[in-house]
Amino acid sequence: MASNTLHQRKQPGAPDTVYQVIKTVGKVTGGMVLGMTMLTSSVVAGGLVGLAISFRNLPDVRILRSYVPSETTHIYDVKGALLTSIHGEANREVVPLDKISPDLKRAVLAIEDSYFYSHHGVNPGAVLRAFLANWHKGETVEGGSTLTMQLVKNLFLTPKRAFSRKVAESVLALRIEQIFSKNQVFEMYMNQVYWGHNTYGAETAAESYFGKSSADLTLAESAMMAGLIQAPESLSPFIDYKAAKRRQATVLRRMRELNWITPQQEAVARKQTIKLGKITSFQGSTIPYVTEAAVQELTKRFGKDAVLKGGMRVQTTVDTKLQRLAEDVVKRGHESLLNQGIYADQMALVAVDPRTHFVKAMVGGVDYRKSQYNRAMQSLRQPGSAFKPFVYYTAFASGRYTPDSTVSDSPVSYPDGYEYYTPQNYDGSFHGAMTIRTALAQSRNVPAVRLGQDVGLNKVIDVVRTIGIRSPIEPVVSLPLGSVDLTPLEMAGAFATFASNGWYSETTLIVQVTDSAGNVLLDNTPKPQLVLDPWATAALNDALQGVINGGTGVAARLDRPAAGKTGTTSSERDIWFVGYVPQLATAVWVGNDDYRPIGKGATGGGYVAPVWRDFMQQALQGVPIERFRPPSEFNRP
């Protein structure tokens, strides 16, 4: 910032005495002269404090020592690309004074308060000139506010124009300048001032109007932006470019009159082509299902006000490239289902990295513009047979079963409340004794129910709780067949633990959160824990590969080893495919929001597995083929 002497020069044409001011506005009455003389004397003598004795309820300006202005929160993808910016009423990014272009600082001072560095919060001459002009017109036509008074008005007072408010402004301005240095006041002003289109502060305004940081503004851009403070919306170059240029010329002329720029600099700046940016406030996200989910997670942890006003820098786990791919796959897959006579209005997809449990892509519906409901994390739907792997893992972890153990696919009934429950297979048949591997591959219901009873449903529930499923679960006899409501996110996260061979971290959409100064508020660096038995997990992975290689999920077959499970509810209201490779686990769900049946013969293997394959095949391009570790590498429990 320029030294104080820069601001102590006499303004060209500025009157020296109160009587010169009086001459400039024409004939005045004796009462006016007396009144003006008294006002001037009170200002010079510090009498404004005396005039404000009645203002006993004025705010204590010392609170500004701990004042933190509201700031815009920015959300990024995992690679640092900006996804969206969210804020409350004020879209603002706070920057230090020394990070603002010197040209902008001089331009603002020139047009708003050229004596800023020489007065003590109130400029008596400016107040007097404004008083005379307003008295002469019979209304408020000119302001005498210094930058400090403007800051006071923005922070503490209402915009109502009244003599009493102007006195209050003056008193508070004097108090502020007793406590804070000039540079501190100027920094608060530059970060607080309103620049139009819901942008507050120099940094956000520069990004909006010119698409660049306030540190990089040219003289021409600085003069245009400084000129907007007087009437931000009506002078906005987005609304009236010619008016903005006229105001820019006024600012440049004032800077030249003050000898803060040369005539040559003024001429060059006037001719410079201005490249405008775009209005940045309240712009939607490019991937709204993800950013809305991230905001929910942040709000749950930090509270709504902190998210809207805290100036957070949020790095999400999502890869924008994968997200775009997932959105395209869902849109294309849904159109294909409709063309095949499957009457489902919605589809959701969630992809999770098993190594970190970071969500890499999330699509909560077919079209966000038509429905903002995020089915990927909010819709509780029955997973059908996609729940069976939890039962089979529990059986393997008991040490009493292997994928080649024999189970019975034969009629059986179990007490269920006041009645008996008799499980049926999808095709109504029974195949007698078979291996667990075959039962899984063919998605036989009866063997799964038998195993659930044998190992204990409460143990199955313990397993799913251990790997991140939090939705309510009751130990009903039909639980192994998916008679529980879960979200696609829960399913993808749980299967990711199978893919990682039993290593679990909490599934999250957020990598890290910092404040605008770079202080870390949240660090979600994965802290994986081995929560499942390695042999039992490897055995399950081995068996689930059979689902894709020759079972109900053959339509999901990739060019690499993959494991997964189809899911179809008996009511044909929900169809699923959840599967994984060691580097990526993905759940896809299809259904209707009103729970109408999708259509006779609709199965996860027939209609959802191809959608899953479409996504995985593209998502894994360039990713090395990795095989699952075989059970032989581990000790059987």
TrEMBL record:
This is Penicillin-binding protein. Residues 80-255 form the Glycosyl transferase family domain. InterPro entries: Beta-lactam/transpept-like (IPR012338), Glyco_trans_51 (IPR001264), Glycosyltr_51/Transpeptidase (IPR050396), Lysozyme-like_dom_sf (IPR023346), PBP_transglycosylase (IPR036950), PCN-bd_Tpept (IPR001460). It comes from the Bacteria. The chain crosses the membrane at residues 33-55. The keyword Nucleotide-binding does not apply. It holds the Pfam family Transpeptidase. GO terms for cellular component: outer membrane-bounded periplasmic space. It catalyses: Preferential cleavage: (Ac)2-L-Lys-D-Ala-|-D-Ala. Also transpeptidation of peptidyl-alanyl moieties that are N-acyl substituents of D-alanine; [GlcNAc-(1->4)-Mur2Ac(oyl-L-Ala-gamma-D-Glu-L-Lys-D-Ala-D-Ala)](n)-di-trans,octa-cis-undecaprenyl diphosphate + beta-D-GlcNAc-(1->4)-Mur2Ac(oyl-L-Ala-gamma-D-Glu-L-Lys-D-Ala-D-Ala)-di-trans,octa-cis-undecaprenyl diphosphate = [GlcNAc-(1->4)-Mur2Ac(oyl-L-Ala-gamma-D-Glu-L-Lys-D-Ala-D-Ala)](n+1)-di-trans,octa-cis-undecaprenyl diphosphate + di-trans,octa-cis-undecaprenyl diphosphate + H(+). Residues 347-617 form the Penicillin-binding protein transpeptidase domain. GO terms for biological process: cell wall organization; peptidoglycan biosynthetic process; proteolysis; regulation of cell shape. GO terms for molecular function: penicillin binding; peptidoglycan glycosyltransferase activity; serine-type D-Ala-D-Ala carboxypeptidase activity. In the C-terminal section; belongs to the transpeptidase family. In the N-terminal section; belongs to the glycosyltransferase 51 family. Keywords: Carboxypeptidase, Cell shape, Cell wall biogenesis/degradation, Glycosyltransferase, Hydrolase, Membrane, Multifunctional enzyme, Peptidoglycan synthesis, Protease, Transferase, Transmembrane, Transmembrane helix.
